[in-house]
């Protein structure tokens, strides 16, 4: 098989790596890819939103399967475009990717089908939103309706901050048109857990749980980011939580989308909050999480091509999805200053010390080759230093040991990824 992966981050590197394990695949292309991906796939200079060019490339190269990694092209309808040309593609169609593309849609869906989530209201007028905030309980959460690179969520401890947040999202357009509509919802307390799943329109198969670290700085301080690190499995995702979510969250979401005439095929990412009143859905994503993919896929036993094809063909019920009885931790090496301003173009050294067969992986997110052919930094999140272990504590120790192997100017990371593991005593 020839496979094309669309995207350029750590998630796409992890997907390409997992695809490369399949004996069914002879050739992998990635558009546009990055320096790390180029070690296992041929990178193609086509951007993720250039649908016509991607279709033309897939036809020219006789691509057997295209895998869409990123949210923007999915929400923009790339799957519909590929399918209209008779091309085989993994990911939800536009009318299903709205599950991530519009927070107002997903909240309304959960309300209509009694899927547990936070109480909320939706606003298209800044004045109406501010009037609502006058009598709200604090802290409170403001969310831009549309895609905002994982950063369009404001947690506001006071009314003053919430009012300023409305201005930021709706008037100052910090996230562009994503803030034309906003969702204001109750602030929930508890541990966040990420659960990825494969879906074929009817059947849903849950992958192993993971836990993200969104804030830029240690102690969950600083600004929201796309994710500073991750671990899998989450010790807080118990059998009791799984039983509840299977019954009230996972299958009901798939059934709800089908009932709305929006059958979902692809990956649904469930962002859960384990509240004192039970699990609640924080958000949906319509693709693999980043860096969740980097800790979940190395633990997956299955040939991922088999799973992708079963999702497309509606035969996921025939797949026995299995994961190793081990653990994985990813620590993101970022450019100092991320997620605001940062310099790039610094040479990266020490990458040759990572060996997959020893359980150490280096997933590239923001890297490229410079004119001299050296790998340099090219983004806020640069690398995902990822390691396996027999349990979470060993995997965490291995990952942090490996962060010392690789270096670049203005290298920055959190030092407490997986600290919750110690609290769970696992």
UniProtKB/TrEMBL annotation:
EC number: 6.3.4.13
Pathway(s) the chain acts in: Purine metabolism; IMP biosynthesis via de novo pathway; N(1)-(5-phospho-D-ribosyl)glycinamide from 5-phospho-alpha-D-ribose 1-diphosphate: step 2/2
Enzyme class: ligase
PROSITE patterns, per the entry: ATP_GRASP, GARS
SMART domains according to UniProt: GARS_A, GARS_C
Cofactor(s) the protein needs: Mg(2+); Mn(2+)
Family the UniProt entry places it in: Belongs to the GARS family.
Full protein name: Phosphoribosylamine--glycine ligase
Species: Lachnospira hominis
